[in-house]
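so ive been stuck on this for like two days lol. basically i have the seq below and the ligand is S-adenosylmethionine, smiles is in there too. i just want the complex predicted, nothing fancy, no docking runs or whatever. if the output looks off dont worry ill sanity check it later, just need somthing to start from for the group meeting slides
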Amino acid sequence: MDTIFTHKTVLLNATVNALVARDFNAKEEWVHLPVPSAKVDGVFVDGTFGRGGHSRYLLSHLSESAKLFVFDKDPLAIQEAQRLQQQDQRVHIIHDGFSTMQEALKEHGIEKVQGILLDLGISSPQIDDASRGFSFMKEGPLDMRMDTTRGITAQEWLETADINEIKEVIKNYGEERFAFQIAKAIENRRKSSPLRTTLELAELVSATVRTREKGQHPATRTFQAIRIYLNEELEELSRTLASILNLLAPEGRMAIISFHSLEDRLVKQFIAKAVNPAAAISRHLPLRESEMPQALLKSFGKIVATKQEVEENPRSRSAVLRVAERTEVEQ
Ligand SMILES: C[S@@+](CC[C@H](N)C(=O)[O-])C[C@H]1O[C@@H](n2cnc3c(N)ncnc32)[C@H](O)[C@@H]1O
């Protein structure tokens, strides 16, 4: 049963404003202004539908002829999108990773879009539902797949992966100092009996990692790492960023909400490179000003949640929203 789990959308006003409001230049404007009442036309993409918090609000600012393509890997998110589609024919659903957006939109005859939203990571229903295996606080099977219809579970991976690979994943995707010790403990444990549940893994990590960061469960980083790896979260993001410049129409906007530094770094570097492509060219090349590559994106900066939003929705604590607009320059 999914209905008891709800998701509180983060940075709702600022994100939708960033996508639909026109005639603003400074960050202060899109963060604080109410979303304009004039309806906006065009094609928009919500790459991470979740429970549709952003999508619903965005739709209320789109014209009757606009289209909203929504993606999610999670079958339960797709069910929710289907419920929305029954009430609103502007919604088009794709049950797949958002990195497939360029090809998927092409199949619908769409080459350019006016706005792309990504609210990365997992939703509250995914964490709160113990049977999904994302939470180290609740007993459940070690699954951790966003898309439960394909791919291998965390249990299968922990049983079969090379121990060096497990160490590298925990180190790189969890930025965990004790990755080696944790991987070793997993190796020892699986010689006697397989790790089957979330609490078994959480307890194993707690027993191995003595040092704790203030207020953080010792297994936080390990769970984050396995989840990022199994769901190919960083690869999905990198592939999508690579296609965003092609997909966005001139003046089209991208709004991306990240929840940890690995994601945010990718988004930040991508925007910085597109804002100033000339920086990548050697100073020693004899290029005239007119031959230098021009900006492909204009950045509207980043924001984080206000103190009030964090109090009302603790999940917004680590959210960083970055916004940029496509220029007219061809790639
Ligand atoms: C933070 S939630 C989005 C919440 C949504 N904005 C709302 O207000 O309800 C992230 C959602 O994106 C999905 N997701 C994460 N990475 C994805 C990817 N690469 N492709 C498709 N869906 C993804 C997850 O399954 C989850 O449902």
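The pocket of S-adenosylmethionine is lined by residues 7, 9, 48, 50-54, 71-74, 77, 97-98, 119, 121-123, 146, 236 (CB under 6 Å). The chain has 14 helices and seven strands.
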